[in-house]
Structures are given as C-alpha cells and as structure tokens.
Amino acid sequence: MPACLVGTEACATAHHWARELSRLGHEVRLIAPAYANAYVRRNKNDAADAAATCEAVGRPNMRFVVAKTEAQQASVGVHKTRELLVKQSTMIINHLRGMMGASAASLPRQPAPDDRLAKALAQLVHRRLRCGTARRLGIRQITQIRIGAR
User: Where are the strands (E) in 1-150, listed by range?
Assistant: First the structure.
C-alpha cells in the first residue's frame, strides 16, 4: 500500500497506532478531540466524527498532537495512577473521620505516618460491636488498612 495521510482523534490507543502506522511509512496526524468536535455538523456518531476528523486533517492551520512514545505513555500512566491513589486515600480518610465524628471521636486533620487512625477506629469498633467474633474480625480488618502509612 502506498504511503498516505492518516488522521485520527488523539486518545490513548491513537498514540500506539500512530507509532505503528509511522513505521509503515504513513504520515499520521493526531487531532485533539476538542478541535475535531468543532467540525461535527450533525448528531454525534461514528460517521459524523469520521467526517469531522477528515475535514479537520485537511485544514492548513490546524494544530496537531505529537504522538507519544511508549516511555511517555508509561510515565503519564504512572502519574495518573498515583493521582488516583492519593484521591482515593483522601476519600477513605475523610469518610472514616466522618464516621468517627458521629461517634464523638476526633482525629487530627492530617493523616499520621503511624497507625493512629487505625487504632482510633479499632477503639470505636470495640465500643460499638458487642459480639466478640465480630469485634475481632473488625479489628483485624481495620489494622490491615494502615491508612496513614505512606
């Protein structure tokens, strides 16, 4: 197949395919989705998106996204994963702080590097649960969380 111009919206998999198609000798242009959406004329569906992308690729003043290398994509993935973990950790700590506040227990605003949160929550479970088995089970699960450790 002779080399040709290939245009697509920039997404996670588009960078992989841009690298593969470039290795085969094709010219690949990745368009930011916000720029391609400006060319959609009617309802949003695959055919309308393809027509908009074709029109946008042919524009002389269109800005294109540079295809990321595998290392760049891996680096972005690591950063996004860390961001998600920090967000989820904050959500869990705030949830537990709210639960403990309802039981008149208080916690410091910042998570401690030790197990203070887990210990305080374990004390709350001791006070709330009457059944010894449930209490031991609850304590075991809570101490395994180790939320404050980073």
Answer: 5-9, 27-31
Q: Which two tokens mark 88?
A: 């989820």
* Segment 71-112, tens digit of pLDDT: 998 898 899 999 998 898 888 877 877 777 776 666 666 655
d(CA 29, CA 47): 19
Question: Structure pTM?
Answer: 0.58
Q: pLDDT per residue over 30-68, tens digit each?
A: 998 888 777 777 777 778 778 888 888 888 888 898 999
User: Hey, where are the domains in the chain?
Assistant: 5-68, 92-145
Give the angle subtended at the CA of 98 by the CAs of 95 and 101, to the nearest 5°: 150
Scanning the structure block, which residue is given the tokens 């959500």?
91
In the three-class reduction of DSSP (H, G, I as helix; E, B as strand; rest coil), residue 31 is classed as strand
Residue 22 sits at φ, ψ, to 5 deg, of -65, -35
